[in-house]
Amino acid sequence: MIAATRHWLTRAVIGLNLCPFAKAVHVKDQIRYAVSAASDMEGALLDLERELRRLAEADPQAVDTTLLILPHALLDFHEYNDALFFAERMLKQLHLEGELQIASFHPEYQFEGTAPDDVENYTNRSPYPILHLLRESSLDRAVEAFPEAETIFERNEALMRKMGVAGYHAWMAQPAADDEGANDNAVDGADEARGRAGE
User: What is the mean pLDDT of the chain?
Assistant: First the structure.
């Protein structure tokens, strides 16, 4: 599950430059991959609360961002969207609004006003339902370094339309190695992987 997520991150998010901010934290190994065993929304939200608290308390130099991977829960996109409402409410209840935020990725992601098969939806499609926990301070620094951040979404949509669904799948079917030589198709050391995943 971590290997599949790493492949998506390095091949799509970084490889297609869908998020110009992602490469730095990946190269610095500042991403926490947390695999949830939850099988329903309640369990997923409990794991989310734990990961939000953990990220808030962590040293940003060690863990800058967290990918909470939900392979057994919120598989229905409508239920996932319902969970996002409660996730945002949780941020407020934990008094973390303004410190952390949650970005959303899902295998069936669909932007409002699009059809399920529209290629632009693939900018937010991931191998599993994922809640991406980010630090506001890191986002602020990233936006300062990338002054045209508001154009990212439009650029990504244009790229996806140019690639097409078949082109995107062909791209994703190939292995990826980042500039530091880390291959995303295997996680070195199963024990290390379990430790980083919080399993």
Answer: 88
